[in-house]
Design a protein that fits this description.
single chain, Lipocalin, eight-stranded mixed beta sheet, 38% strand, disordered N terminus
């Protein structure tokens, strides 16, 4: 089994002294772990990684290797972060000695790491191993070392092991952890649920995600001492999720505690041990809640088996908002641990500042399929309404640096009804234009584009996800539908909804539907390309034409005709 190497214990002690400048001057600098990185690269099939620029190159400094972030103190550089999510890493997790190197952040999520873990990587502050193929029991807290060094190792703060195949109970020694975030969702855990609660530290806004496991029965009253993010009357919020576990809770004090802390607040019993059905390609299309007509999401199960979502909604001030991302597919659910908000400019696309895109993680979402045409949606969205505008631009000279601003979490749980279904997702709803369905974009202005949904009656619904033309960077979404003329859609009245507000204040009677202008989309099957032509009523948008390329295509049914 893996043991902490003596040189790493020495490094840990050196890092523990960083808070004292005198101690730092007298202590040996932590070395750049070149040997560990080389071993890690070889053990995870580095030559097959999707992004491996710089790795193992003698001419490229370690701190410039893809995914590695360093910090320099007193002229000495050391690795503090390694981020290689969704990068085709493969290998046995317990063969990776790099996991025992002290880091602020280690993100290996969305890869093909497999096997069991002998212990938690306790020298890492933020650890994300979600969406891999890890299995067996959850690891104990401490590694098998003969002696724990003094000072004691720093404690994990954020631990994400969701979307794996862990079984059995949560270890009892996890009660000695002091986490701010623990995500064990989408595994096969079946015991020790109280130790997951006890693993949370004293943070008043802790987050504990346990949904979609096999925890059953009741809960101990002692969990009510756990400090988690509380809900509020206006926005809900909540830092606890127990959905999709066969729990049976009837203690009024426990119910009150869960009501006050669960994502989306009271009503969590609706998603505990509820029956669900398997996901298939017919889920692709537009969805909405009848109580919140005027917002919704376009969902597409791509031909890769991954779900792509574009959610169109509003902020708390009534301005348009859209966010998107590729998520994870389960047998009966889709899950997005993050959804991204983008800022950009109409006619230019996504803003880039010093090679950094103007993107931020604004939401998380889970969709469970209840039946044909119905899903249960559970989302949490960060509300930045009290913050300075996020426009992705650098500060002007002399402009004050904005202070940290208060944020809250808007969360809700609702049954969503399928409004549209893509043609070709079954063998009984075919249409000659179904090949056009999917996501399209202009390669010269990435960060904006179109989602096109083709129906079996020969119509096409279009969502245009773009930005304002006033320089604010504000997201903008437009929508319309029309009947195909050959491979062309003539959208004579492209609508720009606004006015409704996020959260429990949502009122679709406040919606304002502005006629933005005209849009024509023409597609070429031979090149899998297209042309967009627009003519806006607002002169700040003007008129123009640009080329389109396919970004993603939906999974369609395989039929014998």
């Amino acid at each position: 089994m893996t043991r902490i190497h003596p040189r790493l214990i020495a490094t840990l002690i050196a890092l523990a002294l960083l808070s004292s400048s005198t101690a730092w001057a007298l202590s040996p600098a932590p070395p750049l772990p070149k040997d560990l990185l080389i071993d890690f690269y070889n053990a995870t099939g580095g030559d097959q990684w999707l992004r491996n620029s710089g790795w193992l190159s003698a001419e490229t400094p370690i701190c410039d290797w893809n995914g590695i972030h360093c910090e320099t103190i007193s002229g000495v550089s050391f690795v503090i972060s390694i981020n290689l999510p969704d990068n085709n890493l493969a290998g046995a997790i317990d063969d990776l000695e790099l996991l025992d190197y002290p880091l602020q952040n280690l993100d290996l999520s969305g890869n093909s790491l497999h096997g069991g873990m002998s212990h938690l990587p306790i020298l890492v502050s933020h650890l994300d191993l979600s969406r891999n193929q890890l299995s067996g029991p959850l690891p104990p807290r401490y590694p098998p070392v003969d002696e724990i060094p003094d000072p004691t190792p720093p404690v994990l703060s954020v631990l994400d092991l969701s979307g794996n195949e862990f079984t059995g109970p949560v270890p009892d020694d996890w009660q000695d952890l002091e986490l701010t975030v623990l995500d064990l969702s989408n595994n096969e855990l079946s015991g020790g649920i109280e130790y997951a609660f006890f693993a949370m530290g004293d943070a008043r806004q802790g987050e504990l995600y346990l949904q979609n496991n096999q925890f059953r029965g009741g809960l101990a009253a002692a969990i009510t001492t756990t400090r988690l993010w509380e809900t509020d009357q206006r926005f809900s919020g909540g830092g606890l999720n127990l959905c999709w576990n066969p729990l049976d809770i009837d203690d009024p004090d426990l119910i009150d505690f869960i009501d006050r802390h669960h994502v989306a607040g009271p009503g969590w019993q609706d998603c505990v041990d509820r029956q669900r059905v398997a996901i298939d390609s017919t889920v692709s299309g537009s969805w909405f809640s009848p109580e919140r007509s005027g917002e919704g999401f376009s969902l597409m199960l791509m031909d890769t088996g991954q779900p792509l979502i574009y959610s169109f909604t509003y902020d708390t001030k009534g301005e348009q908002l859209w966010y998107f991302e590729v998520g994870r597919s389960g047998e009966k659910f889709f899950d997005w641990s993050k959804l991204l908000e983008a800022r950009g400019d109409f006619g230019a696309g996504l803003r880039w500042i010093d090679d950094t895109p103007a993107l931020r993680n604004i939401a998380r979402l889970r969709i469970d399929r209840l039946g044909d045409g119905t899903v249960l949606s559970e989302r949490s969205v960060i509300d930045y309404s009290g913050c300075p505008p996020f426009d992705g631009r650098p500060l002007e000279e002399g402009e004050p640096v904005p202070l940290p601003c208060p944020v809250s979490t808007i969360s809700d749980r609702s049954v969503q009804i399928q409004l549209t279904r893509l043609a070709g997702t079954s063998c009984v709803n075919q249409d000659p234009h179904q090949w056009i369905s999917g996501a399209w974009f202009n390669p010269n202005r990435a960060g904006e584009g179109f989602v096109v949904e083709v129906f079996e009656d020969g119509r096409g619904l279009v969502y245009w996800f773009t930005y304002s033309a006033d320089g604010s960077g504000q997201p903008l979404w437009l929508t319309a539908d029309a009947r195909f003329d050959n491979n062309t859609l003539e959208l004579d009245s492209l609508l720009r909804p606004s006015g409704a507000r996020a959260g429990r204040d949502f009122d679709n009677s406040e919606l304002i539907l502005q006629d933005w202008g005209r849009l024509t989309l023409t597609f070429d099957a031979r090149q899998d390309s297209g042309v967009a032509r627009f003519d806006a009523f607002d002169p700040s948008f003007g008129s123009g034409e640009f080329q389109l390329k396919r970004l993603a295509r939906p999974m369609l049914a395989e039929c014998d005709f």
